């Protein structure tokens, strides 16, 4: 993203030109705000972590005093927030672990879904017998009279089954 917007590959550039340093500062700050630590950020740029810590400490001052840096930072940050997906920053082993854990989770969810579908099917079979009664009560019960209907149905069923 920094390479696309600013034209600087922060991982390859070693020169200390102003635009390159600014790109590295922006890159570091955006990843820092996303929750990455200075060691990981430094490794991604093949730099010493102390340099990244220096960027973090100086960033508030730089962004106040350097209009071009502030504008570039805003462009990069908005692009990052729009398209950021942490999967692009994982190593091959981390991706494999993530894939395995997702497969396990998928199996658990599929198993749970099968159980729930069985429960729903069983409930539908059981309720099919009473569906005409439910439909009639739903159609003929006026709003606000539910308590009265429950009381009368209870009286009815008590009379029918107590004989």
Description:
There is one protein chain. With 163 residues, this protein is mainly α. It has two domains: 2-89, Chromosomal Replication Initiator Protein Dnaa, Chain: A (Orthogonal Bundle), CATH 1.10.1750; 90-142. Helices cover 77% and strands 0% of the residues. The chain has helices spanning 2-6, 18-33, 38-45, 49-65, 67-83, 92-128, 131-140, 146-161. The longest helix has 37 residues, at 92-128. The protein is elongated and about 95 Å long. The termini are far apart. The mean pLDDT is 89.
**Rg, please?**
32 Å
Second CATH tier, the architecture of the largest domain: Orthogonal Bundle
Major beta sheet summary = none
- DSSP, total strands: 0
Q: Per CATH, what is the topology of the largest domain?
A: Chromosomal Replication Initiator Protein Dnaa, Chain: A
- What is the overall pLDDT average? 89
Name the poorly predicted regions. none
Can you give me a brief rundown of this structure?
This protein is mostly helical and 163 residues long. The chain has helices at 2-6, 18-33, 38-45, 49-65, 67-83, 92-128, 131-140, 146-161. The chain folds into two domains: 2-89, Chromosomal Replication Initiator Protein Dnaa, Chain: A (Orthogonal Bundle); 90-142.
What labels would you give this structure?
2 domains, 163 residues, elongated, Chromosomal Replication Initiator Protein Dnaa, Chain: A
């Amino acid at each position: 993203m920094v390479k696309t917007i600013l034209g600087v590959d922060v991982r390859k550039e070693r020169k200390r030109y102003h635009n390159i340093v600014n790109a590295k500062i922006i890159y570091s700050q955006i990843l820092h705000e996303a929750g990455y630590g200075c060691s990981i950020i430094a490794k991604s740029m093949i730099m010493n972590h102390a340099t990244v810590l220096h960027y973090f400490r100086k960033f508030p001052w730089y962004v106040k005093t350097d209009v071009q840096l502030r504008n570039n930072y805003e462009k990069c940050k908005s692009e990052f927030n729009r398209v950021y997906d942490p999967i692009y920053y994982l190593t091959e082993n981390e991706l494999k672990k993530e894939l395995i854990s997702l497969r396990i989770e998928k199996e658990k969810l599929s198993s749970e879904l099968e159980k729930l579908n069985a429960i729903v099917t069983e409930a539908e079979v059981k309720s099919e017998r009473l569906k005409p009664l439910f439909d009639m009560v739903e159609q003929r019960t006026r709003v606000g009279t539910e308590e009265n209907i429950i009381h009368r149905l209870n009286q009815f069923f008590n009379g029918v089954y107590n004989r």
